[in-house]
Write a structure and sequence with these properties.
Blueprint (H helix, E strand, L loop, with lengths): L15 E3 L15 H9 L4 E4 L8 H6 L3 E3 L7 E6 L11 E5 L10 H9 L3 E4 L15 H22 L18 H11 L8 E5 L3 H12 L18 E5 L1 H4 E3 L7 H7 L4 E3 L10 E4 L13 H6 L7 E4 L21 E4 L6 E3 L7 E3 L9 H12 L3 H4 L13 H4 L2 E4 L2 E2 L11
Parallel strand pairs: 1-2, 1-4, 2-3, 4-5, 5-6, 7-8, 7-11, 11-12, 12-15
Antiparallel strand pairs: 6-16, 9-10, 13-14, 13-15, 16-17
Length: 425
């Protein structure tokens, strides 16, 4: 496999269409912005754009970039999107780039995966485009972290007001209202340092989402403390960023070992998160989780420690009944929160006083669509000349390594790294 992406191409037999997103009214992101499309067309990469009234960039902006705006993406061999395509619109032999939400065997999207197999189609997932050090090369993580943390602050302000507690967080609006990171940052800077009753925040996960959430805390002037200080109950408002080693322990009492944890998960390791309960007010969950790993807050633990749970949980990871079992479903940008009653396991809409109020929006970067799309496009653009050739290849291993690793289905067959998904089909 070739280790690098090609810079230019001479001629293409495949035609690419930028898909119209249909997931919901808030999905305004785009994989390639007009400036990137213009540069790619100049290199010979043929790109058409499906018309959309909702996209953050107008149809006219793409026309001015040199693209042809078409009614839909039918009959194109290569489709570039953001969210997963609609299963019954998938055509025979097509190649789709998207966040497919299939690699954990998610039940909701197994019909889509089966459709790729039936249609002898190809699926390339952005989530699995990684470099040789296993680092994601194209992602919205920072923007999910920023939007998720800001929305968590906003909901915390509303909940504290409902509880009769004083806080300047009531000045905040939902991230969507600000429209850009610059405007959001300006608002938070104007409120620093945070006044009112102290609020203690835990951010779990040190990846791009966790770092994005930490940026929000810094803009608000909230000081950071080390994980080791959390249980010392330091005064004032603060935040701590907890990594896997801070919340997971080896069952045999030995030291935490990251490679061993990745390999063995809950077989050899267990959650150590319970020790933090009662020492913080708000949880922002950003860490990757799947069924092989232990859970931090299951329903039994939450019932037992009901009075020590955080008042608000921003579950940026959005794993339904996953690491946090209070995330019983995904919420939406227009109805972003629910309240979980740990004593009964019941869930009520909106902000309540029966237990933690949970935000579990799975498309948070949509609240910052312009910034998020520009970032994403910058990462995707250099890969496009190679992707444009995918229909000409005899095997997916002819792609550069980073892209080859991201091919989940190639012409109707699960690739070697993803054959484990057969158990979910």
């Amino acid at each position: 496999m070739r280790p690098i992406f090609l810079g230019e191409i001479n001629a293409l037999t495949a035609s690419i269409c930028l898909r119209r997103e249909t997931k919901n009214q808030w999905e305004r992101r785009v994989a390639l912005i007009p400036d990137a499309v213009s540069r790619l067309i100049a290199k010979g990469v043929e790109i058409d754009v499906a018309t959309s009234p909702n996209r953050i960039f107008s149809d006219q902006a793409y026309r001015e970039a040199g693209a042809r705006v078409v009614a839909d993406e039918q009959n194109y061999p290569i489709i570039i999107g953001i969210k997963e395509p609609i299963a019954d619109q998938l055509e025979h032999g097509q190649t789709h780039l998207a966040f497919s939400h299939t690699i954990k065997g998610q039940p909701a999207n197994m019909p889509l995966l089966r459709r790729f197999l039936e249609q002898k189609a190809t699926l390339i997932d952005y989530e699995t485009i990684k470099d040789d050090s296993d680092k994601r090369m194209i992602a919205f993580g920072r923007y999910a972290g920023i939007a998720g943390a800001a929305d968590t602050l906003w909901v915390t302000g509303k909940k504290m007001e409902l509880m009769g507690r004083s806080t300047a967080l009531t000045e905040l609006k939902q991230t969507l209202s600000y429209g850009s990171i610059a405007a959001l940052k300006h608002q938070l800077n104007s409120m620093a340092p945070l006044s009112g009753e102290p609020v203690r925040f835990l951010i779990v996960g040190g990846g791009n989402s966790g770092k994005g959430a930490a940026e929000v805390m810094q803009w608000l002037g909230i000081p950071k403390i080390p994980a080791s200080d959390v249980r010392n109950n330091p005064p004032g408002s603060w935040y701590a960023l907890l990594h896997t080693k801070d919340v997971i322990r080896c069952k045999d009492g030995g030291p935490f070992d990251a490679p061993a944890y990745k390999q063995h998960g809950a077989e050899h390791f267990e959650s150590d998160f319970e020790k933090y309960l009662g020492h913080f007010d708000v949880l922002i969950q950003t860490a990757f989780w799947d069924h092989a790993y232990p859970k931090h807050l299951d329903q039994a633990l939450m019932k037992r420690r009901a009075d020590e749970l955080p008042i608000v949980i921003g579950d940026i990871s959005c794993d339904v009944m996953g690491s946090l079992e209070c995330t019983t479903r995904i919420t939406t940008i227009d109805e972003p929160c629910m309240t979980y009653n740990p004593r009964t396991s019941d869930v009520s809409e909106g902000i309540g006083l029966d237990g933690p109020t949970v935000i579990a929006v799975d498309n948070l970067p949509c609240e910052l669509s312009m910034d998020a799309s520009s970032h994403f496009s910058t990462a995707l653009e250099p890969m496009m000349p190679d992707l444009a050739r995918v229909c000409e290849l005899s095997g997916y291993n002819q792609l550069p390594q980073a892209l080859a690793r991201a091919v989940i289905v190639f012409r109707g067959d699960l690739t070697a790294d993803y054959r484990y998904l057969e158990q979910y089909l």
